[in-house]
Amino acid sequence: MLTLNCNAATPKAPELVSGIILLMNREVDSEQAMRSFGQKIGHLLKGGETLELIGDVGAGKTTFVKGLALGLGIEEDVQSPSFTISRLYDARDNLQLAHYDFYRLSDAGIMADELTETTQDPTVVTVIEWADIVEGVLPKDRLSIMFTSPTETSRHLTVTGPVQIMEKL
């Protein structure tokens, strides 16, 4: 099921860019389907994009990133950066994937400076889990994906972002 709606009042939606925020709802019923959705998005990315992943522990965020990495041509095993805070992977077309996880941080500190630099690099796709601690430095034109778990095996994804990114999906 895939639904596209115009909606500027979505909870936790990024600020309006060009006046339009698009909303996509997607049901995912397996880990493989989550990887496939991530891979589809990864194929569309050109560099310079920022993705904010929102959801509880075990909601499927890292599984999504594994698929995203495949779409970016990354063959190495993608792991959660929960303990290392960040991981960097070389991708296709001289791109890089920067994957951050701020779950264990109580203060952004110097990571806010690094993140600002990374999100402004047109050769880097930046993915951030637990981004609330760095909310103030995130670009306004980011793609936000909220992961919820209606059942043990299924996930509901709510994707919001500016029209120039969402129309690619």
Structural notes for this entry:
It is a single chain. The chain has 169 residues and is α/β, with parallel strands linked by helices. An eight-stranded mixed beta sheet has the order 1-2-8-7-3-6-5-4. The protein starts with a strand and ends with a helix. The protein has four helices and eight strands, in the order E-E-H-E-H-E-E-H-E-E-E-H. Helix 1 (31-44) crosses helix 2 (61-71). A hairpin with a 6-residue loop joins strand 7 and strand 8. The chain has one domain: P-loop containing nucleotide triphosphate hydrolases (Rossmann fold).
Blueprint (SSEs and pairs):
Blueprint: E1 2-6, E2 21-28, H1 31-44, E3 50-55, H2 61-71, E4 86-90, E5 96-101, H3 110-119, E6 124-129, E7 143-148, E8 155-162, H4 163-166
Parallel strand pairs: 3-6, 3-7, 5-6
Antiparallel strand pairs: 1-2, 2-8, 4-5, 7-8
Helical residues, percent = 10-25%
Record the strand order, biggest sheet: 1-2-8-7-3-6-5-4
Number of strands: 8
| Total of DSSP H or I helical runs spanning 4+ residues | 4
CATH architecture group name? 3-Layer(aba) Sandwich
CATH fourth-tier homologous superfamily: P-loop containing nucleotide triphosphate hydrolases
Kindly report how far apart the N and C termini lie.
Answer: 14 Å
**How does the major sheet shape up?**
8 strands, mixed
- What value does the Rg take, in angstroms? 15 Å
* Multimeric state: single chain
**Nearest-integer average pLDDT:** 83
Class derived from helix and strand content: alpha/beta
Order of helices and strands: EEHEHEEHEEEH
CATH topology: Rossmann fold
